Amino acid sequence: MQGSLWADAQKQGNQARAPDIDLSELESLFSTATVTSSSEKGATRRGSAINKPEIVHLVDMRRANNCEIMLTKIKMPLPDMISAILALDTSVLDNDQVENLIKFCPTKEEIEMLKFFLELMKVPRVEAKLRVFAFRITFSTQVDELRTNLTTINDATKEVKESLKLRQIMQTILTLGNALNQGTARGSAVGFRLDSLLKLSDTRARNNKMTLMHYLCKLLAEKMPELLDFDKDLIHLEAASKIQLKLLAEEMQAINKGLEKVEQELAASENDGAISVGFRKALKSFLDAAEAEVRSLISLYAEVGRNADSLAQYFGEDPARCPFEQVTSILVIFVNLFKKSRDENARNVEAEKKKLEKEKEKASAAGK
């Protein structure tokens, strides 16, 4: 309870007060109402497909095998064979061997393919360098997206905890619950479980025309109408409810691992020689800036973790039992149900007003 809205409310007195309730009206509507619980649905995330490494054949397999057989018949080092061809030395190569070599001269397509691989082979650990390059390209986007999501969670947490209107509505719901349960062990509660908010729309009046959520909105409209737009205090709540902390942790880990690969390749490329001088200079510049970004991101990530836990604690819940995703999901559903009931009440009031006006007009016309 310590640090929760329930504990704070007892210190703040009238600042978080609930409106006065007409107990006789409440009793007439809900005295025999029963509460049904709502179930929660869990979301599953499909694992990403694992791509198997693909084998690239530079030369057709059959052609490569035949070439290998031909070379075993010539039985000489390749440099000697090339020298004999260039010297037109008939003492080294006979006609059959030359004819076989003609058959296995590389095609234009094979030459282009081999040029590509030979160029890549000039660069030490070319695959590692390409992976570092790919990380460099996506780094800013990854960091920006992660920072945006983390900031959204922080903003939503702050908005919920600082909304005096939400606090007063929670106190009103508590007062309603105690009024309904008066005379029982539950009639003097100092707080309630967060998922109880979802039961307000399941609790129906005896006439079956009104739910406890409708009654809450009616009560507030009559006594404290300034609270009806409390949802405007919570502008980041819905966006935050769609963010999974587990995925943010995975993104944070991926950025850290990518940075480790950058550091490893920077160290390894020291012995590459002249070919990697420009690469090392560009990579060092990127690493210096990236490390500062990641340090800031790690600090924000740790802050968000504390704030996410504090949101559950604010409602007197255990973060292990009621994690951030569940808290925000419940609050979003509650806000939407509240708005729906509020709007339905307003339409009913307007319809009733028009009905009375028509009745007055008819009565007036009849009097004339």
Describe this structure in words.
The protein has helices at residues 5-12, 23-30, 61-74, 78-86, 95-103, 108-121, 126-162, 164-180, 212-223, 237-241, 245-268, 277-314, 324-367. The chain is mainly alpha-helical. The protein folds into three domains: 5-37 and 164-233 and 323-367, no CATH class; 61-121, no CATH class; 126-144 and 240-314. The protein is elongated and about 130 Å long. It contains 13 helices and no strands.
Describe how the helices and strands are arranged.
Blueprint: H1 5-12, H2 23-30, H3 61-74, H4 78-86, H5 95-103, H6 108-121, H7 126-162, H8 164-180, H9 212-223, H10 237-241, H11 245-268, H12 277-314, H13 324-367
Helix pairs in contact: 7-11, 7-12, 9-13, 11-12
Number of domains: 3
> How would you classify the helix and strand content by structural class?
mainly alpha
Distance N to C terminus: 67 Å
Unreliable residue runs: 33-50
Biggest pleated-sheet summary: none
Average pLDDT level: 87
Q: List the secondary-structure elements in sequence, H or E.
A: HHHHHHHHHHHHH
InterPro entries: FH2_Formin, FH2_Formin_sf, Formin_homology_domain
Family: Belongs to the formin-like family. Class-II subfamily.
Protein name: Formin-like protein
Keywords: Coiled coil
